[in-house]
Design goal:
39% of the residues lie in helices and 21% in strands. It is an alpha/beta fold. It folds into two domains: 209 residues, Isopropylmalate Dehydrogenase; 144 residues, 3-Layer(aba) Sandwich (Isopropylmalate Dehydrogenase). It has a ten-stranded mixed β-sheet with strand order 2-1-3-12-11-4-5-10-8-9, sandwiched between helices. A two-stranded antiparallel sheet has the order 6-7. Bound molecules: 3-isopropylmalic acid (IPM) and manganese (II) ion (MN). The site of 3-isopropylmalic acid has 4 residues, from helix 4.
Length: 362
Amino acid sequence: MRGSLLNANQPLRIAVIGGDGTGPEVAAEGIKVLQAVSKLDGFKYETVDFDFGGDRYLRTGEVLPEGAVEELKKFDAIFLGAVGHPDVQPGILEKGLLLELRFQLDQYINLRPVKLFPGVETPLAGKGPDDIDFVVVRENTEDLYCGVGGYLKKHTPDEVASQTALYTRKGCERCIRWAFEFTRRRNNPKKMLTLVAKTNVLTYGHDLWWRTFQEVAKEYSDIKADYNHVDACCMWMVKNPEYYDVIVTTNMFGDIITDLGGILQGGMGVAAGGNLNPEPGGTSMYEPMGGSAPKYTGTGKINPVAAINAMSMLLEHSGQPKSAERIQQAIQTVTGTKMKSQAAGKMGYTTSEVGDLVCEAL
Ligand code: IPM
Ligand code: MN
């Protein structure tokens, strides 16, 4: 997120990683909408494609080539389609590309809005767009994701495995502080930030989070500082989603509760997220939350709304909030008045037609 360094006369520079399976198809619809909105709102942008993903890995044996991260750092933002290839062992692309970029680019916020758009079906009976509208701020660089651990006596009956969660004061404080600022900016009447953790069991790591949360909260007396255990949060998200305004949570819990959130808002065809490095000059990465759905590749059945939603987030955090809002409104017109369903193959339109509809609605 270049924020303060963005110069209105300089084009917004976007690195596009289409990735695997249907990733490039949904990314193309996001770019189509970018092109349309940039004309309407009069800003310039440039895109550069990168072919990182499963095919390149199978061809060359490397996920991210030497120098790739340095190259990506020169961009204002990264727009990612999806990674995941049927011929590549699970974990290689996830760790070698997605997590590697999150860590190396220090994208310490994973921002995941849970918003039910009009016309979109939710599995929650009796809940509508007014009830399902909150945001999860997930810490994105620590916890069980840090890769600390090992084996003892591997492949024997006495095998021991350890996988360690690491939490640092700096890591949780910068995330918590950002979440308070974000809650203030969001300015929802609830003005409430809920810390989601498990302080009753994780009495070291989550105690650090708890103490830091209480301390930072003192600087934000206009925001209600709230707390839920993660298991209770899962119940409330289903029973009373309208309770939440903004949630801040650790990496692993954030991963889990945002899949629950994703299905509440209509599924992977809709949900999007941003991996943010909010520091001046930082490079953030935006992605639809769904996977590469290889079986739909080239069929025109995949839903591009999540990718278009990710493009809206990219613009919101890259100095074009007006265009971001315009896309949000256009998506809602299309889901509310045109699309039959958000499920692949059941939209009533092809992938590309949905992109065209959003452009028309801008
Ligand atoms: C996500 C994904 C990733 C994660 C995987 C693919 C490593 O589930 O973006 O939520 O766990 O963060
Ligand atoms: Mn996940």
